[in-house]
Amino acid sequence: MRSVLQVLIGVVAGFLLAGLFWLVSRLPAGQPIELQPAPTKTPIVVNVVGAVPRPGLYEFADGSRVQDAINAAGGLLTDADTSAINLAARLEDGQQLVIPFTGGSVQGTNSNSSLGQSTTVPSSGDLVNINTATLDELDTLPGIGPTTAQKIVDYRTQHGPFQRIEDIMNVSGIGPATFDKLQNLITVGQ
Question: Which residues of the chain form beta strands (DSSP E)?
């Protein structure tokens, strides 16, 4: 009986070893799973020009409306004409949103159609004198927010009036790119 028991244990051990060998030697089937990041939509870019305090390029989520673009550009100026604007219209990538002034004109907008760009060039009466402007007046300039406007006031208090418009680049936070947006909008007076 003992020999039968030994044979039976040998057979069971053989099956266990064969099963273990089969599991270890088996190759994985299929390709490994790779986790991908969730797809994100690229923002749309809109150029807002005309009767807004801070014209320029702004990024929005797909499905944004004209009102969102106006809010991003600082709202409407008092002489803006909204009768020709559909504030609920959806924005499209690459769109130029023109906010007309009262009287139907878009003051100071020169369009360069070959490049798809526009620049704002105000008349000499619309220039902001960086030596006398208030914080609110400075804040209306593109690329200048409340913090930078305060830095401009602090700079001219400490160093005296600006001699040339290029001197505004001495203010912390205003570099050549910001100056390019400002140079046709500012003056140092006479």
Answer: 44-50, 56-60, 96-99, 109-112, 117-120, 128-129, 186-187
- At residue 166, the 3 state secondary structure works out as helix
In angstroms, the CA 117 to CA 137 distance is 25
Fold that domain 40-120 belongs to in CATH: Ubiquitin-like (UB roll) (3.10.20)
Identity of the residue numbered 135? L
Dist CA 181 CA 141 (whole Å) = 9
pLDDT in tens, 92-114: 988 888 888 876 544 444 333 32
Q: Which CATH architecture has domain 122-190?
A: Orthogonal Bundle (1.10)
Q: In what order do the strands lie in the sheet with 96-99?
A: 56-60, 44-50, 96-99
Q: Which of 72, 167, 127 is nearest to 152 (CA)?
A: 167
